Amino acid sequence: MNSSLFLIASYGAAVAATVAGFGSSALLIPVAFLFMDIKTAVFVVAVFHLFNNVFKIRLFWKSIDFKIFSLFGIPSILMAFSGAMLISLIPLDVVKIVLGVFLIVYAVYSFIKPKFGLKKSKPTAIMGGSLSGFLAGLIGLGGAIRGAFLTAFNLPKEIYVATSAMIAVVIDTTRIPTYLITKTVQDNSFYVLLPFLCVMAYFGVRTGKVLLQKINQDTFRRIVSIALFGVGVKILF
Question: Which end of the chain offers a freer environment for a tag, N or C, measured as fewer CB atoms within 10 Å?
Answer without folding.
Answer: N
